[in-house]
Amino acid sequence: MGESRLVTTPTARARRLRNNMTEPEVWLRARLKRLHAQGFHFRRQRPFHGYYLDFVCIDHLLVVEVDGGQHNDPLQAEHDGVRDVVLKRAGYLVMRFSNSAVRTDIDSVMDAIVLALEARPSVRGKPSD
């Protein structure tokens, strides 16, 4: 008999990532949810061209990544650079924050995110009056 292989779909992997968020990701998610009242909606662990985006506001083409210590590894940093180029070519702005920054100064992290959102027009445009 052939060997059974578990096939993971992008949606299944994204669901697994959403269910296993790091503590800083949980904290940031709670704060990002508050921005919904201002019209900024973030999705978490969204599949995109073979990558999984920690948080993405599709309407404003903004990606927010929360990076742990493994992102300091040269190979991981190179991978992140390639990923960021792919996202930039698609029109996205990528903002990266360390776990430490989220833990120790989440207010400054949120201020930077809000400034970036306000500076980026919605790809949907504004409704006409």
What's the gist of this structure?
This protein is of the alpha+beta class and 129 residues long.
Describe the overall structure.
With 129 residues, this protein is an alpha+beta fold. The protein has a single domain (22-119), classed as VSR Endonuclease (Endonuclease, Chain A). It contains five helices and four strands, in the order H-H-E-E-E-H-E-H-H. The protein has helices at residues 10-19, 23-33, 74-89, 99-104, 106-119, and strands at residues 43-48, 51-57, 62-67, 93-98. The protein has a four-stranded mixed sheet, sandwiched between helices. A hairpin with a 4-residue loop joins strand 2 and strand 3 (62-67). The longest helix has 16 residues, at 74-89. The chain is globular and about 35 Å long. The model has no long low-confidence stretch (mean pLDDT 83).
Q: What overall form do the CA principal axes indicate?
A: globular
What is the CA-atom radius of gyration, in angstroms? 16 Å
The overall number of domains is 1
CATH architecture: 3-Layer(aba) Sandwich
- Mean pLDDT score: 83
Largest beta sheet, briefly? 4 strands, mixed
Beta-strand content estimate: 15-25%
| Unreliable segments of 5+ consecutive residues | none
Report the CATH topology name: Endonuclease, Chain A
The succession of helices and strands, N to C, reads HHEEEHEHH
Distance between the termini: 66 Å
